[in-house]
Design brief:
Elements (H helix, E strand, L loop, with lengths): L2 H14 L5 H13 L7 H9 L10 H11 L1 H4 L7
């Protein structure tokens, strides 16, 4: 078995048991609540306008939450192991 597959399997097992790096947990939380991993700053919005790009469309948060819920992601990111 390739070493990369062992690492991937081990990482996935750890995440299922609630051991997730804080940065992944923060990304998951932002994705579930805002449907974006990072907030779009006023500067970025203005820059889009200056470049002639259309404004960002509202996120489809309801559809995304439905998909994430169907895959179990909504439960996965909430786990916190007791240490």
């Amino acid at each position: 078995m390739p070493l990369a597959e062992i690492f991937c399997f081990t990482r996935n097992m750890a995440i299922k048991k609630g051991y997730m790096p804080d940065i992944y947990s923060e990304f998951a939380h932002a994705l579930m609540n805002d449907a974006r991993i990072v907030n779009v700053s006023r500067f970025a919005k203005k820059k889009r306008t200056n470049l002639g790009l259309p404004p960002l469309q509202p996120t489809g948060i309801r559809a995304l939450k439905k998909i994430l819920s169907a895959t179990g992601f909504d439960k996965l990111h909430k786990k916190n192991p007791s240490t």
